[in-house]
Design goal:
This protein is α+β, with helices and mostly antiparallel strands. 34% of the residues lie in helices and 29% in strands. It folds into 2 domains: 27-172, Immunoglobulin-like (Sandwich), CATH 2.60.40.2540; 180-299, 60s Ribosomal Protein L30, Chain: A (2-Layer Sandwich), CATH 3.30.1330.60. A hairpin with a 2-residue loop joins strand 2 (42-46) and strand 3 (49-56).
């Protein structure tokens, strides 16, 4: 009977211990995931944003989000965030009902303090979408902040994903081309001594009108007319009124209710550039638009 060297026996014992430790850690991990019979995704469609959301029992929720004018992002939201700051491993697993799928190692992602412990960029978010669409179940593994030896796994289920994803794609097709940051405050300019809507102005007002017609949280639109200092104050006040009325009238032709609009006109009283140059005068010949939303909706942003 061959004699096994002591060093070989030691290496074998250490290997067995390491494998056992990994297996024990996997078994001992606290798992946060939705059971197959209750797991579901839902699409949240808004004029300025599209979301795919899955609730994760006792943890929070997983969210894919694309805001108008922005990039896709993914984040985990957890009010009682149990993950320790650092790095979490990320794997795309085969679900129990689809065991033939290959499990994939997707690398590591950063874990931070706060209610959004994991946030990934557009490229990784797109990868997660693709894995879910193919039927895999992404899972984040990280130790808890309250016990180094306590691993935590947060898993996403692909159950009902494709159905919600179709609705999400429809939302993307109708998403406004710009976000609220640009719609909230904007301005359009006019030719000297004129109040006609220019083609570039019309293109922007079309975007504003589309948003106003589809949004359900707009309380008021303020339209303010301005001029340069070329003429008398009385003349400029009247010209600024005509400019503001021209913008309001254009929006009305697109279906925007006049009841939503407040018109004000100021002549040359509020220049934003010195009127000492042609460029400054051109900048001051303007109408500003400010969208005011319902306060409760602003709080939800």
């Amino acid at each position: 009977m061959p004699v096994v060297p002591a060093s070989a026996r030691l290496r074998g014992a250490l290997l067995f211990a390491a494998v056992s430790l990994v297996a024990e850690s996997a078994l001992a991990a606290i798992n946060y995931h939705a059971r197959m019979d209750v797991a579901s995704w839902r699409a949240d469609s808004q004029v300025l944003g599209c979301r795919l959301v899955q609730d994760i029992p006792d943890f929070g929720r997983a969210v894919f989000e694309r805001e108008a004018g922005g990039e896709l992002r993914f984040f985990l939201h957890s009010p009682k965030q149990p993950l320790a700051p650092g790095q979490a491993s990320l794997r795309a697993k085969a679900p129990a009902w689809h065991p033939q799928l290959e499990e994939l190692d997707l690398g590591v992602v950063a874990v931070r303090d706060g209610v959004l412990p994991i946030q990934v960029d557009a490229a990784m978010a797109a990868r997660l979408l693709a894995e879910l669409y193919q039927g895999r179940a992404p899972a984040f593994l990280r130790r808890s902040w309250y016990a180094d030896e306590m691993p935590i796994e947060v898993g996403l289920s692909p159950a009902t994903f494709r159905l919600a994803h179709r609705e999400y794609q429809r939302c993307l097709g109708q998403l406004a081309p710009v976000g609220f940051a640009k719609l909230e405050r904007s301005r359009v300019h006019f030719a000297s001594d004129r109040a006609e809507i220019l083609p570039k102005t019309a293109a922007w007002l079309d975007i504003v009108a589309d948003y106003l017609l589809r949004a359900d949280d707009v309380e008021r639109l303020y339209i303010d007319g301005h001029t340069d200092d070329t003429h008398t104050s009385t003349y400029n006040v009247e010209l600024s009124r005509k400019r503001a009325e021209a913008v309001a009238g254009y929006l009305a032709t697109k279906g925007v209710s006049r009841n939503l609009i407040t018109i004000r006109f100021h002549g040359e009283r509020y220049p934003v550039k010195p009127n000492t140059s042609l460029a400054g005068k051109a900048y001051n010949r303007r109408v500003t638009l400010r969208v005011e939303r319902v306060p409760s909706q602003i709080a939800k942003r």
